[in-house]
Automatic annotation (TrEMBL):
<keyword id="KW-0472">Membrane</keyword>
<keyword id="KW-0808">Transferase</keyword>
<keyword id="KW-0175">Coiled coil</keyword>
<dbReference type="InterPro" id="IPR032807">
    <property type="entry name" value="GNVR"/>
</dbReference>
<keyword id="KW-0418">Kinase</keyword>
<dbReference type="InterPro" id="IPR005700">
    <property type="entry name" value="EPS_ExoP-like"/>
</dbReference>
<feature type="domain" description="AAA">
    <location>
        <begin position="576"/>
        <end position="692"/>
    </location>
</feature>
<keyword id="KW-1133">Transmembrane helix</keyword>
<dbReference type="InterPro" id="IPR003856">
    <property type="entry name" value="LPS_length_determ_N"/>
</dbReference>
<dbReference type="InterPro" id="IPR025669">
    <property type="entry name" value="AAA_dom"/>
</dbReference>
<protein>
    <submittedName>
        <fullName>Polysaccharide biosynthesis tyrosine autokinase</fullName>
        <ecNumber>2.7.10.2</ecNumber>
    </submittedName>
</protein>
<comment type="similarity">
    <text>Belongs to the etk/wzc family.</text>
</comment>
<dbReference type="Pfam" id="PF23607">
    <property type="entry name" value="WZC_N"/>
</dbReference>
<keyword id="KW-0547">Nucleotide-binding</keyword>
<dbReference type="InterPro" id="IPR005702">
    <property type="entry name" value="Wzc-like_C"/>
</dbReference>
<dbReference type="InterPro" id="IPR027417">
    <property type="entry name" value="P-loop_NTPase"/>
</dbReference>
<dbReference type="GO" id="GO:0004715">
    <property type="term" value="F:non-membrane spanning protein tyrosine kinase activity"/>
</dbReference>
Length: 762
């Protein structure tokens, strides 16, 4: 249902009157297009709005990264390269072997990689370099190491203002012996330089302290055990302190095993690269060099171990065989000297030949058995087979001996002596040749691994990479700042542009867009510091863009007011902190500047602050006029600004909502409306209390104040719904505090008479 009113005295413009309470029809107005799924401009505006947040986060992370890069301890890296060769590189190849190599998985390199990391190799390096003894200067926390690097090779004056014993230069200490009870492993002790190569030992959480000299070995009994130590070198001024710890040997071995980075270069190349990182360049180089030397030594020893064991066994057997041969020759010579030469018959020669052949076979079997015993035990199947063959030969020899017994005694003795000489000679000669071959193998055996690149002491640290750290910090800061900005935007859900409201409500309902005013921020900060009156921007800086936008709103309101049922206008904000009081006070001043008689009423009986804009008190005010304690003229402050009168809240009464239902309130509004061209009402927030709904029932029109980045769609919808339920159809929206953005405009006003927000528009 429409209500026709006569044109108001403010304007003689006539147009189709507004349809208050008529459901909104989107066909009547030009509907705004839906917001695109990808709004690049919106994203850029979000970044622009959060530029200080993003910049602050980026600056904080960058400064932290710069400080870290300056004070972080350098990390050095040493490396070595080993080539694992095939066991039989000269073996003949054919089509089948080459084809099978395509599917072969080389396990030699993998095995050598595990051996490099084994305790057998690493423990020798730990023991040789005594890595379980940790002695280092006592630097000031965080930044002390950096200052020490800046002082070069000079010794410093210990302490911070004479306290703490911190060192700032090239102080060094070398400890070659430091053993403590097992319960004290890992505890930190202190070496304090006393001057003239003397020191004081203390700490470890124990009541133990003694003085000593450099180069002297000390053995100090304690309730938990004995401490043994020897300091080889101490370069520090008196008072300089060093941290000393005895680490667990196993813990150090495991630490180095974990620190070693071993990898094969390429696929099945046999090239192994070993890397080790550490804070001390020389120590890192020494550890990796020791590991490389120990690995090469043990690899070569492993390859010659079999030959050395066989050679050791033969060296034990050869003297015995030589004595047996000499004894056989002596007996044969004695026999010849006593009996002369004996001419054996053909049968004797055949028997001897058969016996010699059997003895020869037996000798070969014994030699094979000797070689096998260097690798296997008596119970091995191969050795057992040799033993069976020896038994068979022994049986054959026994048979020949039976035949020889029938020969004359002299022939038997000659045959036996000749046989002993031949057997012992052949056996001794064979074992001597075998021993010589094993000696050549031990000397000429070459390992199947070789060190291609030996470790070199690193000259420059690989960490920290200061430029990279700072660059990554900048990128990380920008990323986190952007993420936080978009997260904050998503959590807040505030509307950033007036077009979003028009897309939401399907109507051109934004009457004014008030840009953010930087001068207003400065004035407000000054007012808070001075605890004085609030600045009225329309008077202080009348040419500000925010005031210009209010002037545009004034023109729009003057055009629409003839269609309102009265000249009372209310500015309603969904929540607090939207700048509603700023809009009310400054718009009242702008309207008054046009020559209109304006009355501004602070109807926020909860926490009204409009009186501070004009430098007056709260009381007497609206509350007293409603109670009838004073006349309406007595609460009006005339000409607070030229042509602008003002009614403050007065004393804040209890039961505010019921208080506003008093009949005197409606009568008072009708009374003052007759004497002014425009009456402006500033009520409490819509969504917090019901006061605005009561006050709005007396207003000819209601404008909703929204703030960029704070007011969201749900708050606008809920505000319109509550106003509609109270029988109020808001005229439009004033969009306040819009930030200056890319492609933005300073002021923006839209006027439409058919674009009101009806009951169904929320």
């Amino acid at each position: 249902m429409s209500t026709h009113v006569e044109p108001h005295a403010l304007s003689t413009v006539r147009s189709r009157p507004p349809f208050l309470g008529v459901p909104f029809d989107p066909s009547v107005v030009d509907a705004a297009s839906d917001e695109p799924a990808f709004n690049l401009k919106g994203y850029l505006n979000t970044l622009y709005d959060s530029r200080w947040l993003i910049g602050s986060i980026t600056a904080f992370i960058t400064v932290a990264a710069v400080l870290y890069a300056l004070v972080a301890k350098p990390v050095f890296e040493a490396d070595l390269m080993i080539h694992v060769e095939e066991e039989s590189p000269n073996a003949s190849k054919n089509i089948l072997s080459e084809a099978s190599s395509l599917f072969e998985t080389k396990k030699a390199a993998i095995a050598e990689m595990e051996l490099l990391r084994s305790r057998m190799v690493v423990s020798r390096a730990v023991d040789n370099l005594q890595l379980y003894i940790d002695v280092r200067p006592k630097y000031f926390p965080v930044a002390g190491f950096w200052f020490a690097n800046q002082n070069g090779q000079a010794l410093s004056t210990p302490g911070l203002f004479g306290y703490g014993g911190y060192v700032w230069g090239s102080e060094k200490a070398e400890v070659s012996l430091f053993d403590v009870p097992d319960a004290w492993l890992g505890r930190e002790f202190t070496l304090t330089a006393l001057g003239q190569d003397r020191f004081r030992f203390s700490g470890g959480g124990q009541r133990i302290m003694f003085d000593g000299e450099v180069g002297v070995r000390y053995r100090v009994p304690t309730p938990s055990g004995v401490i043994e130590m020897k300091v080889d070198r101490l370069a520090a001024n008196p008072g300089g302190r060093f941290r000393l710890r005895r680490m667990s040997r196993l813990a150090m071995i495991e630490a180095i095993q974990n620190a070693l980075v071993i990898s094969e270069q390429g696929k099945q190349s046999g090239i192994i690269e070993v890397k080790l990182q550490g804070e001390n360049a020389r120590r890192t180089y020494a550890v990796l060099s020791e590991i490389g030397r120990e690995y090469m030594r043990q690899n070569l020893a492993r390859k010659t171990e079999e030959a050395e064991k066989s050679l050791a066994f033969l060296n034990q057997q050869l003297p015995t065989l030589k004595r047996q041969l000499e004894q056989a020759e002596d007996r044969y010579n004695q026999f010849r000297n006593a009996h002369g030469t004996v001419d054996l018959q053909e049968e004797a020669r055949m028997s001897l030949a058969q016996a010699a052949a059997a003895r020869g076979r037996r000798m070969d079997l014994i030699q094979k058995k000797t070689e096998l015993l260097a690798r296997f035990t008596e119970d091995h199947p191969v050795v057992a087979a040799i033993n069976r063959q020896i038994k068979e030969v022994d049986a054959e020899i026994d048979q020949v001996n039976v035949r020889i017994k029938d020969l004359p005694v002299l022939e038997q003795d000659e045959a036996r002596l000749t046989r002993d000489i031949k057997v012992n000679t052949d056996l001794y000669t064979a074992l001597s040749n075998t021993a010589q071959q094993l000696r050549l193998i031990s000397v000429a055996r070459v390992s199947n691994v070789r060190m291609v690149d030996a470790p070199i002491a690193p000259e420059k640290p690989i960490k920290p990479n200061r430029p990279l750290i700072v660059a990554l910090a900048v990128v990380t800061g920008l990323f986190l700042g952007t993420l936080i900005a978009f997260t904050r935007k998503a959590m807040a859900g505030g509307i950033d542009e007036p077009q979003a409201i028009e897309r939401l409500l399907r109507a051109r309902v934004v009457y004014a867009t008030i840009p953010h005013s930087v001068p207003q921020d400065k004035l407000m900060r000054k007012a808070r510091s001075d605890d004085g009156a609030l600045p009225l921007l329309a008077q202080v800086i009348p040419d500000d863009a925010a005031i210009e936008s209010l002037r545009s709103f004034r023109a729009a309101l003057l055009f629409a007011m003839p269609h309102f049922r009265n000249n009372i206008v209310m500015f309603a904000g969904p929540t607090r902190g939207l700048g509603k009081s700023f809009v009310s006070a400054n718009f009242a001043a702008v309207m008054a500047a046009s020559g209109k008689r304006v009355l501004l009423i602070d109807a926020d009986l909860r926490n009204g602050q409009l009186h501070r804009y004009f430098g007056i008190g709260r009381d007497p005010g609206l509350s007293r006029a409603i109670l009838g304690q004073v006349a309406i003229d007595e609460v009006i402050h005339h000409d607070v600004v030229e042509n602008l009168d003002f009614i403050p809240t007065g004393e804040l009464p209890p039961n505010r909502s019921e208080f506003l239902l008093h009949l005197n309130f409606a009568g008072m509004l009708q009374q003052v409306a007759a004497h002014y061209d425009l009456v402006l009402l500033d009520p409490p927030p819509l969504l917090d209390v019901a006061d605005a709904l009561i006050i709005g029932g007396h207003a000819g029109t209601v404008f909703i104040v929204a703030r960029a980045g704070h007011t969201n769609e749900s708050e606008i919808n809920e505000s319109i719904k509550r106003l509609n339920h109270a029988g109020i159809s808001p005229q439009g929206v004033v969009f306040n505090d819009m930030a200056l953005r890319l492609g933005a405009y300073g002021t923006h006003a839209k006027v439409t008479s058919a674009g009101q927000i009806g009951f169904a528009g929320g």
